[in-house]
Amino acid sequence: LTDDIPRDAAVFFSEQYGIWDPSDPFGRYGKRVRTNIRRLRDLLPVDAENIYVRVLVAGELAGHVFASRWTQGRKICWITQLVIKRIFRRRGIATALLLTLRQQDDLYGVLSSNPATILATWRALGGGSKDIDLSTTQKYAIDILRSSLVEYVNGAKVHGSLFHESHDGSASTADTGLHVCYDEPSEILATIQQRGTMWPLGELLEGHEYIILVEPTP
């Protein structure tokens, strides 16, 4: 990474990601979720192969993805950050970015409060256009989180009916302590469901994100 890339990526995330929820324990409700160069670098484990891919449109940053790849019995590629600028969303940029990550990996994973990120990961790296299948998530999520080289991922705790008895509407989520406002994700989910796409991951609780693991299709 050249010196300008982390700086530009931090500014881009801070402008495009989202705002804090009223449940945020630090009282940041209504303010934008921000990051900086140090926090971005903390997402990149020293013992992993770290990947950064970005899309420029007429010289303007339109989207980027950070991911880390390591081997612990299986070849794992974890997507740590996927952000698309608002005016460039729903144009296939997220899918195109994710497709650049496809190599000889056994598993691809992501934590995100954004249903569009979950769906794009499934379609680009695993299931094609089929409905989301959570069998791989159910089988591997707990072990992958525990062994993750990404500190943020390693500290997450799975939640929902996919993993244990649950009556709160959640199915495949993890408690990451990220209290981001869910207004926009809820609107995105409603649009996805209106198109007839099955959504088996359930509801999001405060401070939780959806989790999905996919095995690549040929």
Characterize the structure shown:
This protein has 218 residues and is an alpha+beta fold. It has helices spanning 4-16, 37-42, 93-99, 115-125, 135-147, 151-154, 183-194, and strands at residues 49-57, 60-72, 74-84, 107-112, 157-159, 173-175, 208-214. Strand 3, helix 3 (93-99) and strand 4 (107-112) form a beta-alpha-beta unit. This is N-acetyltransferase domain-containing protein.
Topology of helices and strands:
Blueprint: H1 4-16, H2 37-42, E1 49-57, E2 60-72, E3 74-84, H3 93-99, E4 107-112, H4 115-125, H5 135-147, H6 151-154, E5 157-159, E6 173-175, H7 183-194, E7 208-214
Parallel strand pairs: 3-4
Antiparallel strand pairs: 1-2, 2-3, 4-7, 5-6, 6-7
Unreliable stretches (pLDDT < 50, length at least 5) are none
The biggest sheet amounts to: 7 strands, mixed
Order of helices and strands: HHEEEHEHHHEEHE
Q: What is the gyration radius calculated from CA atoms?
A: 16 Å
The tally of helices reads: 7
| Secondary-structure content class | alpha+beta
What is the residue-mean pLDDT, rounded to a whole number?
91
Number of strands: 7
Strand content: 15-25%
Strand order of the largest sheet: 1-2-3-4-7-6-5
Helix proportion of residues, in percent?
25-40%
Whole-Å distance between the termini? 31 Å
Specify the overall morphology. Answer: globular
